[in-house]
Every structure is written in C-alpha cells, then in structure tokens.
Amino acid sequence: xxxxVVVVGGGLAGLVAASELVRLGKSVTVVDQEGGxxxxxxxxxxxxxxxxxxxxxxxxxxxxxxHELAWQDWVGTAGFDRDEDAWPRKxxxxxxxxxxxxxxAWLHSLGVRxxxxxxxxxxxxxxxxxxxxxxxxxxxxxxxxxxxIAPFVREVEQAAxxxxxxxxxxxxxxxxxxxxxxVTGVSGTLLSPDESARGVSTSRExxxxxxxxxxxxxxxxxxxxxxxxxxxxxxxxxLGKAPSRLISGVPAHVDGRMLGIAEDAGAxxxxxxxxxxxxxxxxxxxxxxxxxxxxxLPGPSSLWLDATGKxxxxxxxxxxxxxxxLEHIMTTGHEYTWFVLTQKILEKEFALSGSEQNPxxxxxxxxxxxxxxxxxxxxxxxxxxxxxxxxxVAETLPELVAKMNAITGxxxxxxxxxxxxxEARDAEMGNKFTKDLQVTALxxxxxxxxxxLIRVASPHRLLDPKAGPLIGVRLNLxxxxxxxxxxxxxDGRVLKADGTPLPGLFAAGExxxxxxxxxxxxxxxxxxxxxxxxxxxxxxxxxAAK
Length: 546
Fold this sequence. Notes:
The protein contains 18 helices and 20 strands. It is about 30% helix and about 20% strand. By secondary structure, the protein is an alpha+beta fold. α1 packs parallel to α6 and α1 (about 10-25) runs parallel beside α18 (about 530-545). The protein has helices at about 10-25, 55-60, 65-80, 85-100, 100-110, 145-160, 230-235, 255-265, 320-330, 345-350, 360, 365-370, 380-385, 395-410, 415-425, 435-445, 450-455, 530-545; strands spanning about 5-10, 30, 50, 140, 165-170, 170-180, 180-190, 205-220, 245-250, 270, 275-285, 295, 305, 335-340, 350, 390-395, 470-480, 485, 495, 500-505. α1 (about 10-25) links the parallel β1 (about 5-10) and β2 (about 30).
C-alpha cells in the first residue's frame, strides 16, 4: 500500500483534505491530471468570496446577522424537495453552523484575512421565506482566490518536502481499483509533461500507465463546468432547452470525468440536474482557456433587457436571483440579454469576478485598492469596455441601439422598444416615490453604507448626459458550478444507490455537490462554493482518517 489515502484532485477541496490527513498522521498521495503549476485548481481563479454569518466585518459595517436568519435564507433558497435531499440537508445544516461558528476563526488562524466591506450577493427580491440573502454576507478574501488556497498549498508542499505526502502531477485517473467490493486504489494514464501556463489547456498525450494502492480514495476532482457536452446532457427541463451557445467560467480540465468513473465503481450520483450557471457572462478579450468568459458582478442599477429590448420582469434585477433570471431568459427564445447603463454606473457598480480581474485585491495592493473610491472605472473594467466584443458605447440612445445590433448581427433590437423601457425607467427617478421595484431596491441598497461607498451609484436618469456615455453590454450564459454530485454522509463516505457506504471511497468539494451530493439544493446564496470545499474537504479527511 503506497499511502493511507489517495486524494484525487489538487484543487481547494483536495488540498484541504490532504493537509488535514497529514495533520492527523496519515500518509497521503495527491494525484492530478494537470501539472504542478495548476495546484489549487479552479479556486485560484475565483474572487475569493466566502459566506460568513455574524462576522466582525458584518458588525463593523452595521449588519445584524444570526445563525437563525442564515438558516432561514438557506432553506428558502435551497428548496429541498427530494427523498435524496436528506443527506444534503444535513450537510447544509452543518455548513451553516460552521459558517456561523468556527469557520472564520479557523481561517484567521491560517493567516487568511478579509476585505472589510461585506458584499451583498443574491439579494432575492421575494418574501422573507424565499430565495436570497436577507443581509450582506459575501466576504472577499484579501488576496482573492490565491489568498484562500495559499495556506493549504504551503502545508501540502511542506508535507511533500518532509516525506509525509507525495504529489503526483500529470496522473489522470481512469478507474477506481476494487478488491472484494472495496475501493483500494486508483489506476490510470501517465500524461506527458506540459509546462503550459496555469489554466491553459494541456496535452493529453499518454506516456504509460500507473497504479496506486491505498487504504482509501478521496475524490476531490471538481465538477463539469468545462465540459459543455455534460452540461447540456444534464440540463434540467425546468430551465428550458439546453443552450446552443455557452461560454466557460472554468478551465477545460473541469471535465467531470471522475464522476462517471466513481459511478461505474458503484457510487450514487444524485441531483445531477442541479447546476449553477451565470447570466451575466462576457467573452474574455484576453482568454486563457477555451471559450473563456468572465462574470460581471453587477450592482443593482443597470437596466436589464432581453434580446428584443423588452425589460426583464421583477425581481430579475442585476444581482438578485441568478437561476430565476436564467429560467426566464430561456423562455424568451434567445440565449443572451443586455445591460443598458451609464459610465457613472459602470464606474461604481461593475466588478469582474476572478482573481486576475482584480489585481488590487489579489495583489493586496492598498494604493491600487483606494482608487476604487475615486472617479473612473477599475482598469480591468475599462479594458473590457475598450476591447470586449460584448460592449457598445455611444453618446445617444439611437447610436447605442445601432451598435448593440451590430454586435449580434441579428438586428433584434427595435429602437422604439428600447427607448420606451429607458424613458419609463427614467421617469421614475423624478422624486422619492416610485412603483418601480428596481428603483426602490437600489435606493434601499444605499441605506447599507458598504453599497453606498463602493457598490451602488447614486440614482440618476440613464439619459442624463452628465452621467454618460451610454453603454450596452451583451450578456451571455456562463458555465460555472455543479450543484449535484456524489452522494455522501457527514463523514464524506460515498454512498451506493441503496444508501450504504461504498467501502474505501470518500468525496469532497464540487465532486460531492459541496457536501452530501448537493447541499445547496436548487440555488446558492453565493460565497458557499469555496466554503463548501473548505468544509467538505476537512470533513471527508476526518472521515477517511477514521
């Protein structure tokens, strides 16, 4: 037996699991089909947002939060309604307890720090028992994605130097080895060395085969977001016909292969139709991986129009209900939408998801960060405005509509339809009263000083020349997270279809639906993906160590 545990996948969940196993005195081998330059996986590219409850940062910003309120929001968002949701619900309960308790102190002890202004993601727009965060809970890691993986990368690399852990890169697992019904190791293909930059698609040239025996195998291989064929095959009927055009928020190696391999070995794969894709994707003008897209993290002021120029109905406003908006878009007969906004809104409200799009936060550059409160858009945002294929800029609305139509080449936008939507919205800005729920929401958002300071522009008319120029942004569907996955109990043991554990097999992170096979249910409150990798990686490691 080469190691007590083989961890499949060197992303965040795998790193957490490996470091925890070493801490518990176990020998570990980490295998990954990518090279060492990709250690940390998809989490490296993230904005580093974490869901925390009743944190010092929240209290500093005047936010009153509690475990009870967070659980109310989680249940209203998840919508658990299936027999197989029993373990996912237990994982959700344990995770909200973790996020309300030791999570921040544990991360702080590892050197992780947070940006003091807490973000308000997934604002909902329904009743108190419906989807969404009642209060801001999105804590941005100081250092973004690289900052959250850093302590675990250090621990794993130090353990490798000390001989307590083996790192096996360019090892692609093709099967789980079984002995008398128990998983006893992994076998697969040795891939040729490839020193391509992180995120770039690597060679699949085979050099030979390998086999590693172990007391247990822990699958932390991620989801399916980079595999459009799997995304479409699992696309839920409730969201309409699967899109013909997608862009990708994750590298190509997020391919979902290990889910099928584990299922072939007898693992139960549940909630495969639950997924989390964004509606505000823009094509990266400087791509790293195939079909590379970036998500706009929008404030609440932009006017959201469908492909024909009709305004999206309430509460499908920017940043309120990702999947509700996606479901509506798929009923329109078109797979893209538009933001119409002003330069003033762009400067205050447009943030781009991803570590590489936020050099101030990622690089922990205070001087650069302070520029966010000064006039002008952040550099990466202005770069997209200048170079991005989805951006149109004009001084007048007729000119803007013409440029927007030129982007698609379809000519679906009628000027009069767009003009009517813009002018009707602008007419609601004349006094403090309104029947427009989006206007009410953006005014209410500015009651939170974090939004007023750096996130929500002062209310104004879109056609106010002082706020210009006008900007139109085509929004594409962007693949990202897999909400379903390998069915696990609270020890991370992978279950078979009959509900009993498959001996020797554990799972964590996105491969396990971030816990249980889908602890988010149908929807996410955001900041819970990295957090789910942290929590499930540690839990599964402790389970395997038993």
